[in-house]
# Entry
Amino acid sequence: MLARQLERTEFHAEDAGLSPRRVVGIGLVIGLITIYGLAMVGGIMKAAQGNLLHLAPETFYALLTLHGAGMIATVVLLTGVAHWYFLREHLTLRVEVLLFAVAAIVWGLLAAAVAVLVGGFAPGWTFLYPLPFVGATWPAWATGLFFFGVLFVGIGFAIYCLDILAGIVREYGSLLNGLALDTLIPRLRRADGKVAPPTVIAATMVAIDGILTVSAGTILVIALLGRWASPNFPIDPLWIKNLTYFFGHTIANLTIYVSAGVIYAVLPHYTQRPWHTNKIYAISWTTSLIFVPWAWPHHLYMDFVQAPWLQLFGEGSTYIASIPATVVTIFGALLLVYRSPMRWRIGSTMFVAGLLGWLIGGAAAMLDATIPFNDVLHNTLWVPAHFHTYLLGGVFLFVLGFASHFAGERAAPGRFAKTAEWLFFVGLGGFLLTFYAGGIEGVPRREAVQPAPGPFLADIATGFVVILLVGLTGVLLETLWRARHSAGQGGEA
Amino acid sequence: MVPLEGKQLVIFVLWVALTAIVIGVFWWVMRSTRRPDAYDAVSKGGYRLRKSWAWFYGTLLIAAFAATLWTVPYAWAQPAAAKRPAMVVTVRARQFSFSMPSRLPAGRQIEFRVTSDDVNHGFGIYSPQGVLVAQVQAMPDYTNVMYFTFSAPGTYTIRCLEFCGVGHSDMHQTLTVYPAKGSV
Amino acid sequence: MMTRRNVPWLGLLVVAMAADILVPAALGIGDPPLGLHHLEHAFLLFGGGVLGIAYVRRSPREWGDPLWLFATILLGAAGLVLMVPELYSRVDAYPVLHTLLHVGFAVVGYFGGYAAERYSPRSGIAWLLMVVMTGALTATGFGAPPPGV
# Structure
């Protein structure tokens, strides 16, 4: 009966000239342009911290808010479209839904940008209550508009997750099968023997945890909008702090799990080796599904009033969540690459380098998530050091790798591409090292004016950001050039 | 530059070691693609290695978790001996200053009761050498209790460690720690 | 699909929901503690959702109209709007209105489950997931003042 229903399905959007590839391309281009702009904002902030140019504190913190909120939303958008592109090989997904999700996230981004750039909204992207309402240097409308922007991004991500969940259930019968738990539980086994491939398993985990995260984010934003509309609306600061990080940490963290789904799909193209599902994948992704949403209390270690069991549970969950990543996904990827007839292209280099960034940033995160170490790392530059390593040095590299794969790359990179790639990596590495150095030296994060040695490190970082941006420009130009010369027939490594 | 010591030194060494190992492994794996081999030939050994790695990593995490149980900075984890009557000091943070004593003794355990009058702030203690030695959050409507003993006299810096608004980076003040009675 | 075997359970669910909505009003019992009250709302949304899903499952349908997915999201927002304290505290003073508001939760739950399940077979489960999650999270302290204030 399901088959009969499937036959009746028509893709109206495709009739309207919106092919799935085109929508993915639109999301990719918008996302990459936004990231490029926000990276420049990041460079401007570093230059200001290094006293190379002057920014008023309210301007600095507004840019900080824009950079953080914008990057998270854009990374969600980019990894989302990339994974969707591969999921369509296994699931029937509606292109209209993706288009709606992309549009909602873009509208959310625009709303946030107006709130920040016109209104001067500046309490940081985590908008930790009660900061948006106390001592504000911006008008009330900017606060409301920003929250609606967040809501829009949440709605976009939620609808994306809903469609994927629906697609998985349709194709594999249940979400348990989506996690490939049928490899463990004979009762779940399908008559046709179909088992979800790793990229679908990743999608199942992301979509379920995505729904949980967006639910948390919605309640958070509704509570803040309640307070915005009526000053009497009661909010418990500890409760909303937990909710803020439940939402903020999980949505940022999920982007790497979306990326894992992309890696599962794309790496076999380059290594010419298959990536199969087995019991280990089912166990590890179920572990991630359960423990990733429980890692947020590691943001509240320094709130000593928090219940002790939550503190320890947060630490334990963070530790446990690292096992599937290191033992299964990254190890599996390395095994796939080891002594393979690898085609080294910009795409494959980016993917392997991204795995490296994921591991190094993850190691730094694990140290920070260890309570006695958090004591001297919390809210120092160590925190942005670790998340820049696995967002910029991990997730973003996967996105660049995907863009390169999507554009099509049959030939090995030429001298221009190789130079650009090296400049990008040198800029990236140097930039990250200054962050780690600042963190270990106790320089606080999120400061317009830093104590020594912050400004000195910021000067060096600015130099590396320039190199990074020059390299990135080259990589993007190369990708664009290849896209134009491969007649839209991407996917071939 | 601030001297590298205490926990920061341990963290730095651990992170550099982990990063070096990881880069080494990646370099080795990437180089190996010059001598391609069949996947079946590689994967068997790979799966064995994965099993050992899983056991090793799991054990490491359990050990690390157990170790932290004894070293968390919370009041409930303080050893009984340290729970002798401490000097109680109330810290009230607000945009953009701390209301607290400007002089405190060294060598005596202090019970900091930290709260905030407005938004979330951080209460970070930097040693005279500029090393971050302890911190706790200052949250409205709640009081965070932190036990801390200044090991040496000198001029310490108290610095806000949670973004709290436009004056955040100016939110720091000095604290004079004088020698404990009977010492010197 | 809705089978005969499920009918008694669905009947039981309807009775439980009706009792939850009507009994406190009829007996003049005040609201439970805030957290529990949020869970009560979640139960009504969830129960309504199960009924909506069961209704769709009576017969096979065409799937895939994205409008149903958009409707699901909108109904989710509607469920949250019903919990906005400004609205809620005004309604709370009148038992009849309060009872109606609870009926409203069940109705939103029903249409949410209906819409989600109409989008695609068994995708109603995503609606139930959302409802349970928002219910559980609001129960931890939505609208609760800080202690000691």
